[in-house]
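Researcher: Here's the sequence for the chain we discussed earlier.
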Amino acid sequence: MAKKEAAGKEEFFDNAGRYAVIITAVLTLYIFTTVNTTSFVVPKSFLLRLLTFSTAIFYVFTRGFKLKSHPVNFALFCYFLSIFFSVFSSVNSWVSLLRLSEYASYFLIFIFTFNYFDRRNLGALVKALLYSAVPIVFYGVLQYMQIDFDFWEKPQGRMDLFSTLGNVNWYALYLSAIIPLAVYGAFRKESAGYEKAVFNVLLFFSIASLIISYSRTAVIASVVSAFIGSALYLAANRFSVSAEFVKKSAFVCLIAAVVAAVFSFYNPVSSTRFAEGGFLSRMKAGFSLSEHNVAQRLFIWRVSLDMFMVKPVLGLGPGAFKIKYLDFQKDFLKRSGNAESFDDIAGNAKEAHNDYVQTLTECGAAGLLAMLYFFFVIFRQAAAYIIYNQGGPKFLAIALAVSLSAFLTGALADFPFHIPPNAMLIFILAAMLLIVSGGGDSAEEGRASSGALSISAESVDQYSLKLAFGFFAVIAIIFLVILPFTADCLAVIGQNYLKEHRFNEAVPYLSRAVSLNPAQGDALYLLGTAYVGMAAPANSKLDAELLDRGRDLLIKSKNYTIDKGIYNNLGFISIRKQLYDDAVGYFENAIGCDPKSADSLNNLGIVYFHKKVYDKAEYYYNKALKMNPYFLTAVNNLG
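Model: Thanks. This is the structure I predict for it:
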């Protein structure tokens, strides 16, 4: 009787764990899809950490520290250690620690998926991912029809169409991973009639939305992953092709061909999305090394190589790319004589647009090798299962392998590992592929013995370990989730006041944000800007103190974020203090961050005018006008 009750309790806890994984996946996707950060205060990446860290406490107290036995555990451990040790070599440990917490949330969602699910109940997770995709894709269609909602995500400065998940390219890469699962759901014999109808509609609009997005990275990733899936199918069937396979493949290809044809020429259907000559012209341009986006990526990778060479083994630290890239770019441009050929492609790159290159710069060769080894273990087992095993859910295994391949291929020219919903999906798909391929078939494998919440049913040492883990997990939630979340909320409020030039009202919110999260570089930058804005032109003692306080905060903010605005503000402070040589250095740094910035070029011209070096002043005014012919300030300065 006691054993039966214990088994029932364990099954209840396991079901709760499975629901936690599904809820985490769906909520993370929806919070990134629906909430507009410019109008609603939700620092969205913290939701995934909160849910995964909380689930980790639940897992340990109900299952203990036992995991399913599999070689992937060692690979994941190596992956984690490579990132963990790179924190100690980091140029900014606090930024790296926060980034490590993001990695931890991805690793945890992998562990939960792999240990809570097996082949018998994995279908629930597959359906959750597919059904959750329906409103996301549906909204993409609404955007194409120019039907929008204020609360839905639409980033400033980006195209309005298909901005779900925050960016058209992030959304397109998400689609490239969803399409293989939609194919599985639509063509699976066991699917109910209504499910096939829903998944067929989802499949059509997902393929159409992917093509209409014009995202070359996602389209190429989809094509490459489709070839991988076809190769696995042929190998599994000893290179014999069934009529049913040909029929279904032709159906999918027909959808893609028709939509691609429609959006390759201007017509009433494509009129609202006809850009850069249409779909085929956009794709063709992506294979030219001189095309702007291609040249820009090649330039970023060249600068990233310099970053890697500084610390080739452990890297500059997780999250360090975005705070150090502009410094390395500035040095590279200076070595190249600030050649004007780089003006159009240099800029403020927050990510490397290649996750493998960025891993190399942030976590070194050790991090990249550990990352590749982790996915090698997964694909090795998946390929062996698909090719050599008879029977079983091979169709699902191929679909999952294609989905995961799409993400990993897209990571060659984008950064899905740095977009929480896509990174989360990568690790969920990896765990699902491992399960389907025979990794831990038994639901009993790896389960804690019994009575996980009872001290009498386990040793005092084991229970003490659980309490210690729970304590440290709560501390992690407070310092790595709740406090940064609150700091970001306060920073957004302060930023809104700052936009309205209400500097006195902005300062309390920004000050509180900095006190809660000293690594909030944007809050430091904004607070320094607020103090500079409060300083009146009278140059009184109080004004001088405000300028000094603002300068100190701006200099400190460079340790956590980099922006041309920081250098521009420091340059203005130097002008106010008549420190013109310092101002020249700051504005040159701003131009090094963004050579196309008309503001920075004009500011440097202003400094040379104050120094009475009029030829240089005129040169920079003219160059500012070259970057922006309608920049009236530069026109007036020349006059």
